[in-house]
Each structure stands twice: as C-alpha cells, then as structure tokens.
Amino acid sequence: MTAPGGTDPGPALRRGTRVGLDVGTVRIGVARSDPSGILATPVRTVRRAPDGSDLTEIVDLVRELDAVEVLVGLPKSLSGKQGKSAAAARRYAVRVAAAVAPVPVRLIDERLTTVSAHQALHASGRPGRRHREVVDQVAAVMIVEQALEAERRTGAPAGEAVTAAPGDKETE
User: Fold this and answer.
1) Which residue range forms the structural domain that includes residue 90?
2) Where residue 154 sits, what CATH number does that domain have?
3) Which of 44, 68, 90, 127 has its CA 20 to 30 A from that of 8?
4) Rounded distance, CA 155 to CA 128, Å?
C-alpha cells in the first residue's frame, strides 16, 4: 500500500502495548509503548527483591497494561559477546516468560542503552547524582523504541523469542 505522496509506509506494525524491561542486579527499569507502537514512555523502577516480589510486580504491570509482548534488554558487549549480565538477563527473561504466559517475551539487544540513557539525562540538565533514580526507566524506553523500530523496518517482531522451561511457572 502506498501512502499519499507516493511513499511506501513500510510493513505494518502489530497493535498493542509492549512492556520493556531493563534488568539489573539492583533495579529493573520498566517502560511501555502506546497501543499503536508510536511512543515509548517510562513507567517505574522496580527494586530487585530476594523473595521474588519484583517478578510479581512485573507480572502485575504486564497484566495492568494489557501488554501484548514483553521486551527484555539483553546486555551484549560491543563485540556482540554475552557475559554474566546477559546470562542473568536471559534467566530473568525465562522467569518472566513463565509468569506472564501466554504473553510472549523477547530478548532485545540493548548495547549502550544505559550509556545512552545517562547521556540523554545529562543533556536534559538532570544532575548526574540523580540519574540513578530514572536511568533504568530511560534505558527501558530505549529498549522498547529499538524493538518498535526494528519491527517497522522488517515487519517481524524484534529480537529473540524466550520460552519458559516446563515447570518454570513462578507466579500466578
């Protein structure tokens, strides 16, 4: 289909809210898209908890926002290699996938999102000492934006699908 003026708008984007997660060892930044997939906005920062209550909070948000997909940032090195942080993000994504099923969960390459988030906050005039409060949310926004842009370009969901291992259901 050609848009007015003869330009091709590209592949159609699936409708529905996406929830993005920037998973860290201490905090999880949460962002969401609007149902049209045009705008990504911060939601909140969830504190990681030894008792697993952080996962319960994520599940509640996914349900509350009626998400059609959860996008978990996969921290790779600049060379594309995956270290301990990427392994931890993968493990968390599997737990999320088990808890939010049947909502799909996808891993999104998040190289440099935290660095870019710090730069954006600095450029906005926010003092460096106050970045920690929101940097994870800004990184989550960037994860959602990257996934939406990739889907617009290709017409296919971005990233790598995560499947929960049988018996991995952690939260109801």
Assistant:
1) 18-158
2) 3.30.420.140
3) 68
4) 38
Q: How far apart are CA 99 and CA 56, in angstroms?
A: 8
Q: Residue 94 CA to chain centroid, in angstroms?
A: 14
Tokens representing 85 are: 């942080």
Above 60 in pLDDT, residue 117?
A: no
User: How many whole angstroms separate alpha carbon 15 and alpha carbon 34?
Assistant: 9
Q: What tens digit of pLDDT does each residue of 42-61 get?
A: 999 999 999 999 999 999 99
What is the number of structural domains in the chain?
A: 1
The values of phi and psi at residue 84, to 5°, are: -60, -40
Residue 131 lies in a domain: yes
Q: Are 144 and 30 in contact (CB under 8 A)?
A: no
DSSP-derived 3-state class of residue 89: helix
Does residue 168 lie within any of the structural domains?
no
Rounded to whole angstroms, the Cα distance separating 52 from 65 reads: 21
pTM of the model: 0.81
Structure token digits, residue 2: 């050609």
CA distance 115 to 118: 5
